[in-house]
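Sequence in, structure out.
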Amino acid sequence: MATVNFTGAVDRDLLKRAKVIAAKTDTSVNALFNAELRHLVETFEAAEVSGNQNFRVLLDFSLGRLADDAAMRALGIDNEEDMFLLMAQAHLPMPRLPESVTRNMVDSLHALPS
């Protein structure tokens, strides 16, 4: 199998953490990246071949391009637990809120009377 080099950008902290995992598992960051990318591509392609749009919906949700309520409607589910399980089965990470939104939520919680 022929390989090619490419240039990409990754969060500095994420790369440090990936290097730790690679060292602990006696592999390389490149091997970890290739395994994850291969899984994503093969899963997406298999879903397309079978005509199943669920993986596309889950990927859009994971990338933050689709809100949770819209994703749940598209998937025909009505609770977050099922969404979490589908994301885990699809081997996709849950989307992260922007830092500002997370900070506002934390500030709101701290402002509550104790």
